[in-house]
Amino acid sequence: xxxxxxxxxxxxxxxxxxxxxxxxxxxxxxxxxxxxxxxxxxxxxxxxxxxxxxxxxxxxxxxxxxxxxxxxxxxxxxxxxxxxxxxxxxxxxxxxxxxxxxxxxxxxxxxxxxxxxxxxxxxxxxxxxxxxxxxxxxxxxxxxxxxxxxxxxxxxxxxxxxxxxxxxxxxxxxxxxxxxxxxxxxxxxxxxxxxxxxxxxxxxxxxxxxxxxxxxxxxxxxx
Length: 223
Ligand code: SF4
Known about the structure:
The protein is mostly helical. The chain is built from 12 helices and no strands. It starts with a helix and ends in an 8-residue tail after the last helix. About 35% of the residues are buried. Bound molecules: iron/sulfur cluster. Iron/sulfur cluster binds near residues 195, 201 and 214.
């Protein structure tokens, strides 16, 4: 059964407190420039943040705005993104740059639905850009968010949990606040630093008192 809204809001408050002390710092978090946030989120798909950092800096040294990327030579463009691996993705970056370069003011859209229209931009990246760059009340769900919800609230999820309606509804409630940007970043960092996939750090977890997984003694099975 899905948790009630008050429990989700309390969980969000707890994570926001934790995030204030332990949130991670990356170059793409020091900006609200939506072009930068969009490209960073696309880079972070299937690539670790540390690996993205160097490519991110190089990319924005060369391509300060979408038209710079749209008009660059193929060789320059490819060689900038190749260290990310996953060559098949490079076309999406170029296609996005071209669409934005042809938009008045080279404006990155701010809503989930508009962002979803960009080439290669799915629900996760659209929600992340809308909430992180524009602080719109938009939800995000990936495998990490599903894991945290499943453990903390004790909900069951399907194999494709990120598509489960009740998981999305929980994420909608979770992100519905004045500080959606921070709330969404908080749950991502919490999943990466505390509620780890294999060995969650339950003993030092700030929310263990309210966590179903911990309270049922399931944490010991992860060691
Ligand atoms: Fe995750 Fe353990 Fe914290 Fe529960 S107590 S949220 S399982 S780290």
